[in-house]
Amino acid sequence: MKNILILSFFFTSISFSAGTDQKTPLIKKILKKIYKKKMIEQQQQDLFTRIESNITKGNNLLFDDLMEWEKNTQNIEAKYKLFKQLEKKSLKILKSRFLKEINMYSLVLKANMHLYRKNFTLSELKTLLKFYNTAAGVKTIEIAPQLLATSQEIMAKQLVPATSKIAKEVQKNMVEEFIASE
User: What Rg, from alpha-carbon coordinates, does the chain have?
Assistant: First the structure.
């Protein structure tokens, strides 16, 4: 009896892993149909606009902090103008690096690979690939909001540290350039 249970577990494990391996190419095809590269690139641009806005707010606070340490309060307007020029330059660098160093399309595909593997059977994936005019298509429509929300959480967990690292480097260079200009 014990040997039968062990063999049963062994064969179940083999069939499960084989099913998972068969799912991967189907999921990749489905995701590439759903997520168009240009659409994701536009979302990345939109995300950067929000990031840029937050950085600008933070830089305004940073300038105020820098001026608190300033003994010579004359020429604050000139210093502010220089600070804003450096900020503009730094944001341009940040945007360039953000778009070059973070492959949002790849992140979207990776984030959703797990979700589709978890939520769809091999049979459903084959049906989805034939397209959404079936019961599997209805299921896709029903769980799409949940998939999107979870995907965005996963991506945010990856993007925030990467963007913060880049922003700190660029901001540090901006501050050094500002201090060196005095």
Answer: 25
- The first and second tokens of residue 123, run together, are 């049979």
Token representation of residue 92: 């341009």
pTM above 0.70, yes or no: no
Q: d(Cα 128, Cα 149) in Å, to the nearest integer?
A: 21
Q: Which long-range contacts (CB under 8 A, 24 or more apart) does 90-96 make?
A: 90/170, 90/171, 90/173, 90/174, 91/52, 91/55, 91/56, 91/170, 93/170, 94/52, 94/55, 94/166, 94/167, 94/170, 95/48, 95/52
How does pLDDT run across 8-61, given as a tens digit for each residue?
444 444 444 445 589 999 999 888 877 778 878 888 988 999 999 999 989 988
Helix/strand/coil (H/E/C) assignment for every residue in the chain: CHHHHHHHHHHHHHHHHHHHHHHHHHHHHHHHHHCCHHHHHHHHHHHHHHHHHHHHHHHHHHHHHHHHCCCCCCCHHHHHHHHHHHHHHHHHHHHHHHHHHCCHHHHHHHHHHHHHHHHCCHHHHHHHHHCCCCHHHHHHHHHHHHHHHHHHHHHHHHHHHHHHHHHHHHHHHHHHHHHHCC
